[in-house]
Amino acid sequence: MRKNIYKSTNIKHLTNIKPIFDDNLPKLYIETYGCQMNVNDSEVVVSIMQDAGFSVTEDIEKADIILINTCSIRDNAEQRVWGRLDVFKQQKKKNKGLRIGVIGCMAERLKEQLLENQIVDIVVGPDAYRQLPELLQTVENGQKGINVLLSHEETYSDISPVRLDKNGVSAYVSIMRGCNNVCAFCVVPYTRGAERSRNPETIVREVKELVDNGYKEVTLLGQNVDSYVWVDPGNVTKTVNFAQLLEMVALVDAKMRVRFSTSHPKDMSNGVLYTMAMYNNICNYIHLPVQSGSTDILARMNRKYTREQYLERVQKIREIIHGCAISTDIIAGFCGETDEDHQLTLSLMREVGYDYAYMFKYSERPNTKAARHYTDDISEELKTQRLTEIIDLQNKLSEESNEKDIGKVFEILVEGVSKRSDDFLHGRNQQNKVVVFLKNNYKTGDYVMVKITGCSSATLKGEPIE
Ligand code: 5AD
Ligand code: SF4
Q: How many angstroms does the Cα of residue 463 sit away from the middle of ligand 1?
């Protein structure tokens, strides 16, 4: 058994953003489920672990520790993790010294319950990642390790995430953590705690680091970016809101594209829209989850806007930002949803003409407002039927949106070689649409002007122009 091998952490601005692959060091294998925020959290975790003396492996067979960063948003997300833990059990049979940690939202939600699973050594919630090395030491000393304390301050602002993306082109930057909106269906406020914003100077510093390392695109992440607010602790009259932060980030480098997610219809200000319109490098794309097109259901979901108010925000986007793509999240079959409510969702989708959507069946989550106050009364069949209608409609809308792009010219940021053929590259336009085109002499990270010549519902095809 290893003793006292893990350096305990007293982190002061970790600056290495590259993964360390070194066979002489103990190896961490990390697997991530859930949202973009979780992807970025895993990068923070790797930074902490590398500082504690670990290297990274992509081969589970070589791992000394496996961390699984988990999601609780829907029941099927949790089921997948339980399935993976069964696989890890086989791994542990082969390698008795292997340590297994469950981190993230499921760790927070299920706490000790996860430790009842024999193979789980440590359980760490989203605000306790700095403790990982110490908790591992606890395991080496023969105990299990758990820390699921939520914090009002933790933003990991001094830790530069170790970038695990493969392309070296686009990176996530967390600007805030937690969530103060209590949407009735959502587990996030319970798994990620109260909302807190990160010091803008550390955000700008991180974006500069990314520029220095050749990155071309950042996505600013928060559960509700529109409620970002930094109050200077030294002078409480000095504040930075999201529109101002967006401008600070856009000014770092005109060649660095800026995206953000997620916007909340009740909070998205015109100021944000004007800032987007003002800076060319802020992408013309907004992810604006609607959840339902029915004002009654929205009220029951505690979303705090009506159908009309949502449509007014869409109208404003169209008015202020030329050629802005809009995507959304939709839940089918929330508690008490009538056929009329469902029809209202379909008609709102048509009215907005979404470019893209993420669509889900309602999944009741324990202890949420909906679980406590409403009955999950829509049958599985009806949820499936409504979801299918929503998906079918969105496929049509996406295709229509793509067809409208034929003949247009877009600036594409190249992300890599197309999976289908080495002769083609793929990248995205500002509107977040994937575009495939002939490689010529272009390479990953280049900006290329491409004329759109064809499309499917999922992809645009085009030809580079000089
Ligand atoms: N059931 C189904 N979908 C959900 N979402 C959040 N909670 C639930 C749930 N309990 C969806 C919402 C949210 C997206 C991230 O996941 O649409 O915007
Ligand atoms: Fe992300 Fe929400 Fe899933 Fe947590 S529960 S990983 S915040 S999507």
A: 38
- From the CA of 223, give the closest atom in ligand 2: 7
Q: 68 - beta bridge partners?
A: 31, 102
Atom of ligand 2 nearest to the CA of 38: 6
Q: Tokens 């006292």 appear where?
A: 4
| Domains of the chain as residue ranges with CATH | 3-147 (3.40.50.12160), 284-403 (3.30.750.200), 409-464 (2.40.50.140)
Q: For residue range 242-273, what is the model confidence (pLDDT) as tens digits?
A: 999 999 999 999 999 999 999 999 999 999 99
Tell whether ligand 1 has an atom less than 6 A from the beta carbon of residue 334.
no
126-185: pLDDT as tens digits: 999 999 999 999 999 999 999 999 999 999 999 999 999 988 999 999 999 999 999 999
Which residue CA neighbors atom 8 of ligand 2 most closely? Answer: 35
Ligand 1 nearest-atom number relative to CA 358: 17
Reading the block at residue 446, the tokens are 């280049």
Minimum-distance ligand 1 atom for the alpha carbon of 187: 7
CA distance 372 to 405: 46
The length of the chain in residues reads 466
In terms of DSSP H, where are the helices of 353-416?
Answer: 369-373, 380-405
Residue nearest to ligand 2 atom 7, measured at CA: 188
**Using a 6 Å cutoff on CB, does residue 73 contact ligand 1?**
yes
What b/e sequence results for 399-424 when a residue is b if at least 16 CB atoms lie within 10 Å of its CB, and e otherwise?
A: eebbeebeeeebebbbbeebeeeeee
Identity (one letter) of the amino acid at 372? R
Peptide bond into 444 cis (omega under 30): no
Rounded distance between C-alpha atoms, residue 44 and residue 221, angstroms: 14
**Ligand 1 touching residue 74 (CB < 6 A):** yes
DSSP 129: G
